[in-house]
Write the structure tokens for this entry.
Amino acid sequence: MPANRSAARRAERRRKRTHSPLAHIPWQPTENKLPPLEVLTPEQVERIHDASMRILEEIGLVFLDGEALELWQRAGAAVDWKEQRVRIDRGLLLDLAARAPERWTWRARNPARDIPIGDDFITFAPNGGTVFAQDLDKGRRPGVMEDYENFLRLNQISNVIHYSGDQIVVPHDVPVSHRHLRTQYAAVTLTDKALIGMAHGRVISADAVAMARIVFQEEITQSDRPVLGGVVNASSPLRWDERMIGGILTYARANQALIVTPFILAGAMSPITMAAALAQQNAEALAGIALAQLARPGAPVIYGGFATNVDMKTGGPAFGTPEGAWAMAAGAQLARRYGLPYRGSGSLNTSKLPDAQAAYETMWPLWPAVLAHTNFILHAVGWLEAGMVSSYEKFIIDLESLAMFAHFLEGQIVDEATLALESIAEVGPGGHHFGTAHTQARYGSEFYTPILSDRQDYETWRLRGAEDAAVHANRIWKQTLADYQAPPLDEAIREELADFVRRRQEALAGVELYG
């Protein structure tokens, strides 16, 4: 990274000190200028690519949606209407995938928070779809709207998180028929970051697009810079269901971003070997991306990778594993092969508490995600219990890791000033550098300042309460919520949004929707 940019970020940290220890972290997406981590040789990449093409051509995928089948048939794919199975020639598939842009900008409500997607940029997004909330005070319980809004507030003030988030925790006290309306309204009004909206089915997705139109006061479908993004997951093995296809077609036609992500557990939803899991993931992801391009050529997409293994003793998913880490890095290599931005995941673990297991398992997906140049890292903060829980304390613990990664990737300046030969000569053998002019000019900004880590001596730590990381994190998230201030939003837009939510809520009362 250029020396002037690194110095500017350090200066920004000095300027942005507030009561909350979270707000001093620079907000800009991190650039990883290191060579990307590669776990596959070029020959292995091509073998996996060829296996994926054979899956698409010879075995095919099921698309449980009549409109999708029609699109594939018109494009020249072999469609078995009885089985709803589509076999796709590799030439057709690769031609469609090549229509997706390699890089693009995800606009935020606050233009200062626009996000570049692609190249070497790394961005962090919060959890999605977790069922329970957890903290040291109330324990583990079903999430409610208050929890969802609290996590949005934490997101807003946590600069290293770049997106608003959708269903960071599921609000069970809001009916499914209009839950998407309430969550997106909260995301727009409580944050001004890049907006993630639910891409589930045609109705929910269309509502998300309509609300985004109101927020931006323009016909967003005519812009090549999307303002909304949503995750769609294949129903592995080898199937895209109607709900996700509806999201793909609706978002793509509106030119909004799709994060196309199979979720594969090797040994259950794919063969047990990670090579087979990766080949299947590649086939499923490319098929979803290609369908988006059939709906609208050039629609922005992110190639998603989310493969890990089953625990063969319990049959449940295993997160924070070396197998999952390998798949994370290998998926990035495949995405680069097709010229597509890449999505991975960050804080995956199977621990039930924000403890040592949660911390060390989280490092297994996070390190390869960052080193492999993952552009969009989902589930980056707060994840526990294999994605069942959003933890307030784990949110803060994970923020510490993300902030340290951002600082690490800034690099270090090596020039006449930082080599400090005059200071070395001034102190000479023995002595210390605490009082030198060189140290005094830099002590406030040279090193990373921890959010959470305790560096006191033992006696001082005992006198101040002997807090462990989770207890300290509990204090931080509470202080952060106390410091929160909502970002400004034009009152006319707020009222128009509220009116839309009211009208749609009445229209959807009693309607069964996928939540």
User: Anything to note?
Assistant: Residues 10-19 have pLDDT under 50 and may be disordered. The first helix runs from residue 3 to 15. Residues 49-90 form one domain. The two ends are 43 Å apart (CA to CA).
